[in-house]
Write a structure and sequence with these properties.
By secondary structure, the protein is an all-alpha fold. The chain is 68% helix and 2% strand.
Length: 180
């Protein structure tokens, strides 16, 4: 009887050893997969398995698209939350950081927009869109000299961009309203 129980216990341990377990300590289900070079029950090795290095970028596309829709509808809080989600999914997506910065500008959280613009600059560099958005941020803050400086940098990089031209006109009208 003891031998039968011991044999059953050994058989059960062998079966359980082949099962995958799930780790959900952080809310994400992960399975314990064979490590590189291990042979699965199908005899395949994982040596040749290649992964896409930046899968997160593609996962953020849906969040960015919805965030842009929310921004166009002037739902800046919702848009900001979605852009923030996109930055978490793809930390190297400069457009998501620019969108987050624009949303935080619109809700007057300039402390957050400064951080988002700094991150965007590291990722996308000195583009006309960057300088235009930073200029608009300064315009919202009432820092007209800083706004003008950034709008002019954007204009130098993209002299035919209608958005930059419109923002320069907006700045000009803001200055005229202050002088009155």
């Amino acid at each position: 009887m003891k031998r039968a129980t011991a044999a059953a216990a050994c058989l059960l341990m062998v079966v359980l050893a082949g099962c995958q377990t799930a780790d959900t300590t952080d809310g994400i289900v992960r399975t314990n997969e064979p490590s590189k070079g291990d042979v699965t029950s199908f005899g395949d090795a994982f040596d040749g398995l290649k992964t896409v290095s930046n899968v997160e970028y593609y996962a953020s596309d849906q969040a960015v698209a919805e965030a842009k829709n929310q921004f166009r509808a002037e739902n800046y809080g919702n848009a900001g939350a979605l852009f923030f989600k996109a930055t978490q999914l793809a930390p190297n997506d400069g457009n998501a950081w620019m969108g987050l910065a624009a949303c935080t500008d619109r809700i007057h959280r300039f402390d957050l927009s400064d951080k988002a613009y700094a991150r965007a600059f590291r990722l996308i560099g000195a583009t006309p869109e960057y300088y235009n958005n930073v200029g608009y941020s300064y315009l919202l803050r009432g820092k007209l000299q800083d706004a003008r400086s950034n709008f002019l940098k954007a204009y130098e990089l993209a002299p035919n961009d209608p958005t930059v031209a419109n923002n320069l006109k907006l700045l000009s009208s803001s200055v005229q309203n202050i002088e009155r």
